[in-house]
Amino acid sequence: MYKSFTMELAGRTLTVDIGRVAAQANGAAFMHYGDTVVLSTATASDKPREGIDFFPLSVEYEEKLYSVGKIPGGFNKREGKASENAVLTSRVIDRPMRPLFPKDYRNDVTLNNLVMSVDPECSPELTAMLGSAIATAISDIPFDGPCAMTQIGLIDGEFIVNPTSAQRKVSEMALTVASTREKVIMIEAGAKEVPEQTMIDAIFKAHEVNQEVIRFIDTIVAECGKPKHSYTSCAVPEELFAAIKEIVTPEEMETAVFTDDKQTREENIRQITEKLEEAFADNEEWLAVLGEAIYQYQKKTVRKMILKDHKRPDGRGITEIRPLAAEIDILPRVHGSGMFTRGQTQILNVCTLAPLSEAQRLDGLDENETAKRYMHHYNFPSYSVGETKPSRGPGRREIGHGALAERALLPVLPSEEEFPYAIRTVSETMESNGSTSQASICASTLSLMAAGVPIKTAVAGISCGLVTGETDDDYIVLTDIQGLEDFFGDMDFKVGGTHKGITAIQMDIKIHGLTRPIIEEAIAKTREARLYILDEIMAPVIAEPRKEVGKYAPKIEQITIDPAKIGDVVGKQGKVINKIIEQTGVKIDISDDGSVSVCGTDKEMIQKAIKIIESIVTDIEPGQIFTGTVVRIMNFGAFVELAPNKDGMIHISKLSDKRVAKVEDVVNIGDEVTVKVIEVDKMGRINLSMKPGDLAPKAEKSRDRKEKKEQKEQ
Which is more confident, 473 or 706? Predict the structure, then answer.
């Protein structure tokens, strides 16, 4: 028999079945939220993994297309590599869970979430997040939980708890907040320039809901929870720390890490390591954990310097930003490029424009997400940190950083109607020492504006760090953290936004949560720094988008035609449209609503293609003048192609004002001629004239008649 627990969550029923499936996992929760079903499991290895100095946690979010009644597209009808959404969801689950496991735990842990049924009203991502927290809390795996997660939307100024798919589509905010019993432990947000205070209120609205969910989880744990198992601690012996301090004094360690140059600091630590390895050469047990001991010694030194002495490793003030620089047009032949440098962090971003048909197609679980017009890709090569490592394509970190910058820029992009292009920006990390994702936001803005993309306003990104002491009131928030402050600090609080408000947030922490004052201070400091970057660094380089796309970018013109005429433009088996493409060298995309995009590098050819399309869809009426090509000659006249599949005839008597003995005396096949429509008969046959008298405008004709009359009278 299994046990079932239910609660009402945002107007829908959340049901958790324990003991129904996956009984051999350390913990398993069969989650039902509405008709959304997710199986969440937590498993751990019996023994610690040897030779590692980190907690080996793996989080998986598996999207099965049967959950939405689809068979995977392409040749392979089996789900393959995780989608971008799956990777990002795994990261969102990982971030609040990881800090709640013991820091010295080295057993492998896997949190798996299998999406089995999807109700558009109930988010499978949220269901999986809650499922992972419940499965781990009831398991025997050491875990200082539970935690809970809530999503918040914003529609017409009202907060929406756990919005439906339809609500998410129109919401001004997509916020996910995870909490422990007392504090906020994770924030992830995308927003349409939402003011800072609104964002803070939304975060703590989610925190309130999380407390209800935690009380619900507590009832499940009380009835179904297993005792937590013991484990082999991998903590560094205190005797080793004492021995290290005798050889390398705290003052020496402070001198070693106190530098603004990453390479110098690494060299200093390398020399200290060699010195200690020599000293402990006979103690294999200590040598095995020496690396971790030195890491922790550095960490304690840096944290003490910041918290007690208000000294940062590179000598900056607490709110001081590293030296900044911005450039555009670094690469001459690309559509747009921008480079942003912050200390030893440097991002070169490249913008590429293409027709809308090049937008990325998505084969996922969300029926609203079928295509992606804007793509931001982030690359992190090993040379950016002075290391050697072969490139194996983007990992979860690269996908996450790319998605964060993408989310920050989406709200300011022009609509497809305003700018009918697919847009790709690529952030190449030239150099890295903290906050490359936020530098990517700045570089992308520069690149988009340089490419002539009419973004509504500039976006900048900055991150804050945190060092905490023994109590909640003992802390310090750092503006613009470098790599060392990120490694040894407690928080990486990334915020992207405009002058008006926030467009993206991502918060990673290593402690058990943040109080409201810390969150409010971090948001205030990121706003101050963001405005400085926008006004003082980016605006002097490029204040607004260029009025036109660059000469190497494709030019796109849009027209709208009657949807009933789309078949005429395409033609049988695509013959008409292919002929236009062949004649002009352009690319033509036609939507079902009659929107036609004509893309090419030659403006004249674009206009020629548009003219042909317009001639096809325009109904021919008497009095209209066309330029067409002679396609057939008969004894009695010539046939002229006015538009594809639209021919008219010039009778021999209408070829000239003078008598014509033979049609070929005036026109030949292939000649381009200007003609006037004289008549469209009941059978749809078009009669044309080339006679100068017929082609002349009415005013000119009446003037000619007047002149002839006057001559007669004289």
Answer: 473
679/642 Cα distance (integer angstroms): 14
Q: Residue 71, Cβ neighbours under 10 Å: how many?
A: 8
Cβ-count burial 206-225 (b if 16+ within 10 Å, e if not)? bbebbeebbebbeebbeebb
Are 492 and 534 in contact by the 8 Å Cβ rule? The answer is no
d(CA 154, CA 173): 5
pLDDT band at 542 (very low <50, low <70, confident <90, very high): very high
Q: Are 679 and 639 in contact (CB under 8 A)?
A: no
- Nearest-angstrom CA–CA distance, 387 and 445: 29
Structure tokens that stand for 72 in this block: 């995977």
Q: b/e map of 341-367 (b: 16 or more CB within 10 Å)?
A: bbbbbbbbbbbbbbbbebbeeeebbbe
pLDDT at 349: 98
Strands 57-63 and 107-117: parallel
CA-to-CA separations, 563 to 568, 589, 601, 610, in angstroms, rounded: 10, 13, 27, 16
Q: How far apart are CA 540 and CA 224, in angstroms?
A: 62
CA distance 347 to 367: 34
Q: Which of 9, 50, 255, 42 is nearest to 136 (CA)?
A: 42
If we measure between CA atoms, which residue out of 125, 116, 120, 115 comes closest to residue 94? 125
- State pLDDT tens for residues 678-712: 998 888 899 999 998 888 775 444 555 555 555 55
What are 94-112's pLDDT values in tens digits? 999 999 999 989 999 999 9
Residue 701 is predicted with a pLDDT of 47
Residues 599, 554: contact at Cβ < 8 Å? Answer: yes
605's CB contacts (< 8 A; 6+ apart) are: 584, 585, 586
Pairing of strands 672-680, 336-342: unpaired
Give the CA angle between residues 161, 162, 163 to the nearest 5°.
95
CB 580 within 8 A of CB 486: no
Domains of the chain and CATH, by start? 3-224 (3.30.230.70), 238-307 (1.10.10), 324-389+398-538 (3.30.230.70), 554-618 (3.30.1370.10), 620-714 (2.40.50.140)
Q: Is 175 within 8 Å of 203 (Cβ atoms)?
A: yes
Query: Looking at residues 296-307, what average pLDDT do you find?
Result: 91
User: What is this structure's pTM?
Assistant: 0.85
Q: What is the rounded distance in angstroms from the CA atom of residue 462 to the CA atom of residue 442?
A: 9
Residue 402, pLDDT score: 95
Length of the chain: 714
The predicted-structure confidence for 494-540, as pLDDT tens digits, reads as follows 999 999 999 999 998 999 999 999 999 999 999 999 999 999 999 99
Q: Using CA atoms in the order 397, 400, 402, 408, what is the torsion angle rounded to 10 degrees?
A: -140
Cβ within 8 Å of residue 474, ≥6 positions away: 307, 468
- Would the pLDDT of 675 be above 60? yes
